[in-house]
Design brief:
Blueprint lengths: L5 H11 L3 E7 L2 E7 L2 H13 L23 E3 L20 H7 L43 H8 L20 E4 L7 H10 L4 E4 L4 E6 L3 H11 L7 E3 L3 H7 E2 L2 H8 L5 E6 L15 E5 L4 H10 L3 E5 L11 H7 L6 E5 L11 E5 L2 E6 L9 E13 L9 E10 L9 H18 L5 E5 L5 H7 L4 E5 L1 H12 L4 H4 L2 E11 L5 E9 L3 E8 L2 E2 L5 H4 L1 H12 L9 H5 L1 H13 L5 E2 L2 H11 L11 H9 L13 E2 L4 E3 L1 H13 L4 H27 L3 E5 L6 H13 L3 E3 L11 H15 L7 E3 L1 E2 L13
Parallel strand pairs: 1-3, 5-12, 7-10, 9-13, 15-17, 17-18, 18-28, 19-26, 21-25, 21-29, 26-27
Antiparallel strand pairs: 1-2, 4-12, 5-6, 6-11, 7-11, 8-9, 9-10, 13-14, 15-16, 19-20, 20-21, 22-23, 24-25
Helix pairs in contact: 5-9, 13-24, 16-18, 16-19, 16-21, 19-20, 19-21, 21-22, 22-23
The structure holds zinc ion (ZN) (3 copies).
The site of one zinc ion has 7 residues, from helix 13 and strand 19.
Length: about 775
């Protein structure tokens, strides 16, 4: 059992049925002994599974007879230190309806109190310092409960029974306003500042946010320029669901997410409206929306009376600020004032971001509200595993048995501060869940900070190829046990990952299970002129691809050539000579190239921007596609991406509208996915496909690919619990390491790689390592 409020629920149930006994936690989860007549015991068991509290997740229940003790009452056993190390650390939970009612009830002593919470809601993961989970090991330790709160805390019949962060205005944290002098309490001053067009820094659950009125263009524009965030969309918080519906289309699955206990940012289709300032999400058909998830947010939104932008409190790509002194210093140049408080945040946790695909969650970022809830592994780890993740959108993952604890979003692991977040995070998780890793899994990229750190650890090491990890992540996400189901066709499309042959992969067709893979097919490699510069300047990829597509004779009337005429020849020469131009088979780079050719943009300000905007350009009503061959090489197949770029360029020169061109390209890539999987099926007979990698955050491509695959009789696995992007890589690495350790104990082997196997594809004789 995972979740909150379970023991009081059991207590209430047993007491109501007149049963004696005990409920408690140990390292396996919750244990219950009930004693009484057989009818009430049966009823008790039925209610346990039939009507559990909303936040409890019951993995399984096992029962066994026990000797009669003659107990007269039902009790809740105190937590033994160390005995319930992971049973009680739950994710942070959005303020429940009952607490929201308290907030606005003039007769309640918590009316208007910004830190109201109960057993069913409130901060958890972000305030936990250590185990066992008890007030003394949280950042609430410094607040001594008043008599009223203590009474609620100790009363099993009370909504706040054993709610560790329970507090009230008399004993709990208090708001503070740091900013221009003026009348009123901190909240009133903050509301006034926002209403007057100011930028406000607000301390939230997992860090500071920056806020401004969403409809106020000068305020949002000021926030954008001070934050040095040029184009990346901001999220908007609305007071309630009705307000969200005024901005966006909300379907039932999206409504469930918006109003659920995790309260992520949900990416919604925007209505054609003028209610949100242009600078909030420039040129974007989607808008990230979230509803209030703390009492402070509820009070703030109620005071302001209209939607606000709520974006992470940081400059550019730095990690979000969460310590008060650091926030005041780093955000001082952005915010006109601070609405802060004296309850420390122990661990920085960003807002989660989710899209809905065919009625199910498609996580883009899994963090607050989800972490540290463990994910079940189909193949349990015989020895504890730490998976160090990738680099961008970094997460790590610790595994004990069949439970995988994927970390919160750490950020891009490119500097000292994020590296420290990673290593401190690992320490924190180790303590919380009592896991001492014996196997450390890592990416193969020698320059990733996570790889370098892993290689320094005194443990058995397992190197996992990046795209194998993506596919393994999708398998683990779906609970697939390959030892039963056999290998799958894995399509891993992303920006870049280190290949088993030392080149940069990213448009990969693998045959894979958890312990190994073969590279069945891939995009034909092209040079990336200027290396990483080509990531920031997609027009360089256009130059490399067009040079191949037109065999060195690129039409000069193409807009992308004209726009970049000054550097075009030099960049082409770089690509041709292979100077500082590593080869890549990346699908992300192909999208970049086509987006630049189509005039979407030549340079980007955030990762994946060109592809994101190119997706939005596409007319979803267009069904035809550019033809694309798969070239069988005798060692698998390649996809000649240059032919697609040529088709795009020819259409544009012929005056075909850009939205049609974008759609035809998306449809062509979807067909490539289906054709490639069909080839693999012919070679080795499998019929399940796993789609992973950041490119599959593109809903147009994902939808078309899944449809085509299903039409051809494939079972298709997509992501629902961890992101398809590199945020999900750590789970994949962990699943691979666990499965390898189960297969052949890794003990004593200092370093082992997930193997490229040569058994599945047979006649296709695919390439591997
Ligand atoms: Zn509550
Ligand atoms: Zn109190
Ligand atoms: Zn990746």
């Amino acid at each position: 059992m995972q979740g909150v409020g379970f023991r009081p629920f059991v207590y209430g149930l047993a007491t109501r049925l007149g049963l004696a006994g005990v409920v408690g936690n140990d390292e396996r989860g919750v244990f219950i002994e009930v004693e009484g007549g057989s009818a009430p015991v049966e009823e008790f068991l039925a209610a346990l599974t039939g009507d559990p509290p909303p936040l409890a997740v019951i993995e399984r229940i096992s029962t066994a007879p026990a000797p009669v003790t003659g107990r007269g009452t039902f009790v809740i056993a105190p937590s033994a230190a160390g005995g319930d190390r992971h049973a009680l650390v739950s994710p942070d939970v959005a303020t429940c309806d009952a607490c929201v009612r308290d907030l606005s009830d003039p007769a309640d002593r918590r009316c208007g109190y910004a830190f109201t919470n109960c057993t069913g809601c409130g901060p958890r993961f972000t305030i936990v310092r250590d185990v066992p989970y008890d007030r003394a090991t949280t950042t609430m330790a410094g607040f001594r409960m008043c008599a009223d709160c203590a009474r609620e805390y100790h009363d099993p019949g009370d909504r706040r029974f054993h709610a560790q962060p329970v507090c009230c205005p008399a004993c709990g944290p208090l708001l503070r306003f740091v900013g221009p002098e003026g009348p009123g309490d901190p909240l009133a001053r903050a509301v006034r500042l926002l209403r007057e067009g100011g930028v406000l820094a607000v301390k939230g659950l997992g860090g500071y946010h920056l806020a401004a009125l969403a409809a106020d263009e000068p305020a949002v524009a000021a926030l954008r320029s001070r934050k040095h965030r040029e184009d990346k969309p901001f999220a908007v918080m609305t007071g309630d669901l009705a307000a969200a519906r005024r901005l966006c289309v909300v379907d039932p699955a999206e409504e469930r997410l918006l109003t659920g206990p995790a309260r992520p940012v949900v990416l919604l289709r925007r209505l054609d409206d003028l209610l949100v300032a242009p600078s909030v999400a420039p040129g974007n058909r989607w808008l990230g929306v979230l509803l209030p998830y703390t009492p402070l947010h509820h009070l703030l939104l109620r005071g302001v009376g209209e939607p606000i932008v709520l974006t992470s409190g940081n400059v550019s790509d730095e990690p979000i600020a969460y310590r008060d002194d650091d926030a005041l210093e780093r955000l001082g140049g952005i915010a006109d004032a601070f609405l802060t408080h004296d309850r420390p945040i122990h661990i920085r946790t960003d807002d989660s971001v989710v899209r809905v695909f065919r009625g199910r969650d498609l996580p883009i970022r899994r963090s607050r509200g989800y972490v540290p809830h463990p994910l079940p592994l189909a193949v349990a780890a015989a020895r504890p595993v730490l998976a160090c993740g990738a680099e961008l959108k970094h997460t790590f993952c610790l595994v004990k048995g069949d439970r995988a604890f994927v970390s919160h979003h750490i950020g891009d692991l490119e500097n000292y501060e994020t590296l420290r977040s990673f290593t401190e995070g690992v320490e924190h998780f180790r303590r919380l869940f009592d896991i001492t890793p014996e196997i450390v899994a890592h990416d193969l990229h020698p320059d990733y900070l996570s790889t370098k750190w892993a290689l320094d650890q005194d443990a058995d090491l397992v190197g996992v190829q990046h795209h194998h990890a993506h596919i393994a992540s999708c398998l683990a996400d779906n609970g697939v046990d390959c030892t039963v189901a056999g290998p799958v066709a894995g399509v891993a499309f992303d920006g870049l990952g280190y290949g088993a042959d030392g080149t940069l992969w990213g448009g990969e067709f693998l045959v894979a299970d958890l312990t190994g893979f073969e590279r069945a097919g891939h995009l034909a490699p092209v040079p990336m002129p200027g290396g990483v510069t080509a990531i920031r300047q997609p027009w360089r990829m256009a130059a490399a691809y067009l040079d191949l597509a037109y065999d060195g004779d690129v039409p000069e009337d193409l807009d992308v050539v004209r726009r970049n005429a000054g550097q075009w020849a030099a960049v082409v020469a770089l690509a041709r000579r292979g100077v500082n131009s590593p080869l890549t088979s990346s699908m992300g780079r192909l999208f970049d190239a086509v987006a630049a050719v189509a005039g979407v943009r030549d340079a980007i300000t955030y990762e994946g921007q060109a592809a994101v905007e190119f997706e939005q350009l596409a007319d979803p009503g267009v069904d035809d596609a550019y033809p694309c061959r798969l070239v069988e090489t005798g060692a698998g197949f390649t996809v000649p991406g240059a032919e697609l770029v040529r088709a795009v360029a020819d259409d544009l020169r012929a005056g075909v509208p850009r939205d049609v061109v974008a759609a035809r390209f998306h449809n062509a890539v979807a067909r490539v996915v289906a054709d490639g999987c069909a080839l693999i099926r012919t070679a080795c007979g499998l019929s399940t496909v796993a789609l992973s990698g950041g490119v599959f955050q593109n809903l147009l491509l994902l939808g078309r690919a899944v449809t085509l695959l299903e039409e051809r009789g494939f079972t298709v696995l997509t992501h629902h619990r961890v992101p398809p992007n590199d945020g999900g890589v750590s789970l994949g690495q962990a699943a691979v390491a666990a499965a390898m350790a189960a297969n052949s104990p890794i003990s004593g082997v200092r370093r082992e790689l997930s193997q490229a196997r040569h058994t599945w594809l047979g006649g296709m004789s695919a390439t591997g390592t």
